[in-house]
Amino acid sequence: MNEMNRLSLAMHGKTVDRPPCICPGGMMNMITTDLMDATHIEWPKAHLDARMMADLTAANYEKKCFENVGVPFCMTVEAEAMGAEVTMGTKIYEPHITDYAIDCVEDWKNISPIDIEYGRVKVVLNAIRILKGKQLDVPIIGNVTGPVSIASSLMEPTAFYKSLRKRRELSHNYMDFVAGEIIKYATAQVEAGADVIAISDPSGTGEILGPKLFEEYAVEYINRIIDALPKKKMGTIVHICGQMKNVYREVNKIHSDVLSFDSSVPMSAARKNLPDRILMGNVSTWALEFSNPDKVKNLSVNCWKNGSNIISPACGLGTKSPIFNIQAVRQGILEEGVRQNDI
Question: Which domains does the chain show, CATH number per domain?
C-alpha cells in the first residue's frame, strides 16, 4: 500500500494497514531549519519562488519526515492577494500581516479580488504543477486559509468579531465575498494538481466565537467552500484550533472528509464525541520541538490508539524542531504497525 492509496482510503474510512503520517502545510507548516540547511533552500526566498517551494516540501517527504507534500508554508497568501500588507519573515519566522486592507466590514467592496495569475498565488499554483511533474506518487496537499481567519486578517480582528454580532448583514456580505475568493483559489489548486485541499481556520474557533456564531459563520462558510470544490479531488481536511467541548455538535456539521484538531483536544474525547468521523492529529508540536524521539513515538502511537485515523502534528511545526523528532512520528507508527501485525 503506497502513500497515495493509504491516505485516500483512510480519508474515506476504508481499511488501511496503518494510519498515514502527514503534515498538510499552510498553517500546519512542515518546514524546519534542519530541512532548509539540508537542502540549501531557505525562507524567505522559498515563499517567493515556485521551484524552491516545490523542492523544499519534496525534501520533507524524501527525508522520511511525512508521507505527503504540501504548499504554501504560511497562511498569509490570500490576505496579501486581497490587499493586506505582509512581511516575508525570516529563516525562522513565517510571513505575517503588518497592515490591514480595510477598516470595517462595510468596506469589503474595496477589497481586491484574488488574481490567480499574480504574486504568491501564482507561485503556489506553479509549485503544485512542479510537484505534479515530479511524479512522487505521494499526495499533494493544497492549503487555503479558512474564511473567518482571512476575514479577521483583512481588518482588525476585535472590530471584526464585534461586527459578527452587531452588523450581521454586512458581516455576511463580507464573508460571502471572502468565501468566494477562497473557492476560486482552492479550485485553481485542484486544477493545478492538488489531490487534497486542507482548510485551516484558527481564528474561527468555538472558543472565540461561541457555539452560535461558530455555526453561523465558521461552519456555514467552510461548508460553502467545500461544497463548491471540484469533485475530482481526493478529499478535504478542515483544521480548527482550540477546545471543542462546547462545539462538537456544530463541528460535526462540517462537510469535510477529515477533521483535524490541535493538542488542546484529547483525541480520545474527539473520538467519543465524533464516533463516525475521520479524525486527524494531534502530536504535540511542543514535544516535536523540545522532547526526544522516544517520547514523540509514544505520543504518535497514543494518537492512533486513542482514535486518530491520520497521524499529524497538532499544529504547524516550530521551525527549530530537530529533524530526528519529526522523523520519529512516522517511525513510531511504522514500528507499532509491525508489532500489531506480529500479534
Answer: 24-122+131-342 (3.20.20.210)
3-state SS class at 240: strand
Specify the 3-state DSSP secondary structure of 263. Answer: coil
Per-residue buried b or exposed e for 82-101, using 16+ beta carbons within 10 Å of the residue's own CB? bebebebbeeeebbebeebb
C-alpha of 335 from chain center: 26
Contact 53, 6 (CB under 8 A): no
User: Distance (Å, rounded) from C-alpha 202 to C-alpha 150?
Assistant: 10
CA distances, 226 to each of 78, 203, 290, 334 (Å): 17, 18, 36, 32
Instruction: Judge contact between 66 and 19, C-beta under 8 A.
Output: no
Backbone torsions φ then ψ of 301, nearest 5 degrees: -65, -40
Cell for 22?
502527514
- Rounded Cα–Cα distance for residues 7 and 237 (Å): 12
CA 201/CA 221 separation, integer angstroms: 11
Angle, to 10 degrees, between the axis of helix 220-228 and the axis of helix 168-192? 30
Spatial CA neighbour of 98 closest among 112, 111, 86 = 86
* 311: DSSP letter: B
Report the C-alpha gap between 74 and 48 in whole angstroms: 12
List, for the chain, all residue ranges whose pLDDT scores fall below the cut of 70. 343
Are the CB atoms for 277 and 236 separated by under 8 Å?
A: no
Cell of 49: 519562488
